[in-house]
Every structure is written in C-alpha cells, then in structure tokens.
C-alpha cells in the first residue's frame, strides 16, 4: 500500500483518485437533480415521517446536497480526504466504509428524530428534510486520525488526530447560534461515532485476517484531552465489552496464540491485547 500524501501545500489539490472523482460526480449530479426538480427532496432526503414507506431515503439522503455551498465543500473534501484514505484502505473497502457508515448515520438520525418528537411533540423533527455528505466527511476525519495521527496540516499546525474533535467542538459551538443545527449536528456526531465503531471493531484487515484497530492511540478516550481520559476510559470500557467482548472470547477460543508466542500470520498488537 502506498503512503498517504502530505497534508499541506499544493499536493492537497492534485492526485485525486478516479473513484473519488466518480463519487464527486454523483454528489454534483444529485445536487443538480434536486435543483431542477425540487420535489425530489421529499423522496430522496431523510424525512422521518416519510421514511416508511420511502425506506430508500436511509441510503440516498447522504448523497443529496441541497445548497451550492454544501456541494462545493463536500466535493472538495471528498477529493482531498479520499486520496489519503483510498490508497491505504483500497477502493473496495473505501466504498464499503461510505455505504455502511452512511446507512448507520441515517438509522441513528431517524431514531433520534422520532425520539425527539415523542419527547417534545414538535412536528418539525418529523418533517425536516435531512441530507448531505457531511456525516461521511466526519467519518473520513476519523479515518485520517487512525492512519496518520501525528501528521500536521501545514496551514494550521494541528495534528490529524485532533481533526474529528475540533470539528465537533466547532459544530456544537455554532449550533448555539443557528436554528438549522438540527439538520446537520446529529449527522456529524453520528458520523464521527459510527465510523469510529466500524474502524475500531469491524473493519477487516486483509493482511492479517483480523478485524478492527485495538491500539491505545485509537481508543475512544483519544478523542479527548489527556486530563479527561481517566474519566472517559472507565465509561468507554463498558461499551468496549458490549461491542467486542464476545468477539474476543470466540477468537481466543480458536487459538491465535500459543503460550506467549504469536502464531504465524497473527497480528502482534492483537495478540498482546488478547493476552
């Protein structure tokens, strides 16, 4: 696998992959479609009250950008971040990540909107059209945090491992001053969390035949400052046991290690974690 490009300089705007260019065309085409046919938003965006029977909007909503600013920003970010991630993951895994995370985001947003309606009885939660690629882009930031955590963006001198946390912090701060936050904030939050769960526990590593990333540098507490990690770790460990306890037990039963030595082909980090 090739090394990801440096985060800075003119290299940000060159070397885009064919797959990312194709996905960019999809985003632009979908934007043009809803501009030419505005009623299409009612069928393609996620409108919780209409998701049943229009269940396909759980998939299509993530690719519908309703504003010109949204489609331009999403297209540029897709091209730039995609050329970092696709060479590392491979094209098939890159597409799989987008599809799975997009679907999980829509499910979570749908459940959240229905819950908020029953709590507040405000119908706007049921009929607000929610769409956009921002959830996937949030997931891409998590992926970049995973593969090049200590790489700095030359313009800002910020390490890549802090990109997801800063993005959420800024989005939450802006939400206090804008009425439209309900249309994008849940998508960003779920995009970050669902992508971390997928990469942490379920993404298959072809070279090792194992799943996920058990490293301490990619733990849930790594999204928070060092001073908060003693508080976050005990809470995160509960969800860790829920998500992968059974998986770890079953893999240990099959025996990836023999005594203290790793069997051929097993991942040393994974073996250490299991021991």
From TrEMBL:
Membrane-spanning segments: 23-47, 67-85, 97-119, 125-148, 183-201
Principal localisation: membrane
Any one Pfam family match given in the protein's UniProt record, by short name: DUF1751
Superkingdom, natural source: Eukaryota
GO BP annotations listed: retrograde vesicle-mediated transport, Golgi to endoplasmic reticulum
UniProt keyword Acetylation, yes or no: no
Listed InterPro entries: Rhomboid-like_sf, TMEM115/Pdh1/Rbl19
Stated name of the protein: Peptidase S54 rhomboid domain-containing protein
Record keywords: Membrane, Transmembrane, Transmembrane helix
A GO CC term assigned to this protein in UniProt: membrane
Subcellular location: Membrane
Annotated SUPFAM superfamilies: Rhomboid-like
Keyword Transit peptide: no
Membrane topology term: Multi-pass membrane protein
Region (Disordered): 255-275
């Amino acid at each position: 696998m090739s090394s990801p490009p440096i985060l800075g300089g003119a290299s940000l705007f060159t070397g885009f992959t064919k797959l990312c260019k194709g996905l960019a065309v999809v985003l632009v085409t979908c934007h043009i479609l809803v501009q030419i046919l505005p009623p299409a938003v009612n069928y393609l965006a996620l409108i919780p009250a209409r998701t049943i029977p229009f269940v396909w909007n759980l998939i299509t909503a993530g690719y519908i950008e309703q504003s010109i600013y949204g489609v331009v920003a999403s297209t540029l970010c897709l091209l730039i971040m995609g050329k970092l991630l696709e060479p590392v993951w491979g094209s098939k895994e890159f597409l799989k990540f987008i599809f799975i995370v997009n679907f999980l985001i829509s499910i979570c947003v749908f459940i959240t909107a229905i819950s908020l309606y029953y709590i507040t009885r405000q119908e706007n939660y049921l009929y607000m059209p929610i769409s956009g690629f921002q959830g996937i882009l949030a997931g891409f930031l998590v992926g970049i945090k995973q593969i090049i955590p200590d790489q700095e963006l030359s313009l800002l001198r910020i390490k890549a491992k802090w990109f997801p946390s800063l993005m959420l912090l800024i989005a939450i701060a802006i939400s206090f001053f804008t009425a439209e936050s309900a249309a994008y904030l849940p998508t960003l939050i779920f995009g970050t969390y669902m992508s971390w769960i997928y990469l942490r526990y379920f993404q298959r590593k072809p070279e090792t035949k194992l799943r996920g990333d058990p490293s301490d540098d990619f733990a849930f507490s790594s999204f928070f400052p060092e001073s908060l990690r003693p508080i976050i770790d005990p809470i995160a460990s509960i969800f860790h046991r829920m998500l992968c306890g059974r998986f770890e037990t079953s893999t240990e039963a099959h025996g990836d290690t023999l005594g203290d030595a790793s069997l051929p082909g097993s991942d040393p980090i994974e073996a250490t974690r299991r021991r």
